[in-house]
Amino acid sequence: MAAEQLSGISSVDIDPDGVFKYVLIRVRPAGGQGPAKEIVRGHAWAEYHADIYDKTAAEIEKQGYDCECLGGGRISHQSKEKKIHVYGYSVGFGRAKHSVSTKILKDKYPDYAVTWADEGY
């Protein structure tokens, strides 16, 4: 049941173009029981990685889930070229596991070239 409910939470919500901050978030049923799901959120409107996390966590926690930020970085999304590059880190949350974020993004954008690097800010 919990896994089916988690499937209702979008794995990816990022801006359609540009370079912006992103966070990798683990979502699980409130109380920490049951399966978890990692999601990627990234937006240019955010001055800080925490802005994205706080907004996302507030929305998801209203649905009865707990959220944990696993780290952050930056995404360069070039929709015309069908390219996404994940890199960098969050000063507040640390570096996300970009390999995990990249896999989630590849599942959402199977026809894109999705790459990552630990270099850069």
TrEMBL record:
It is found in: Cytoplasm. The lineage of its organism: Eukaryota, Metazoa, Chordata, Craniata, Vertebrata. Belongs to the janus family. It catalyses: N(pros)-phospho-L-histidyl-[protein] + H2O = L-histidyl-[protein] + phosphate; N(tele)-phospho-L-histidyl-[protein] + H2O = L-histidyl-[protein] + phosphate. It comes from the Eukaryota. Keywords: Cytoplasm, Hydrolase, Protein phosphatase. InterPro entries: Janus, Janus_sf. This is 14 kDa phosphohistidine phosphatase. Coiled coil: none annotated. It is an enzyme of class 3 (hydrolase). Its EC number is 3.9.1.3. Exhibits phosphohistidine phosphatase activity. GO terms for cellular component: cytosol; leading edge of lamellipodium; nuclear body; plasma membrane. SUPFAM superfamilies: PHP14-like (SSF143724). One of its GO terms (biological process) is actin cytoskeleton organization. Monomer. The keyword Hydrolase applies. Pfam families: Ocnus.
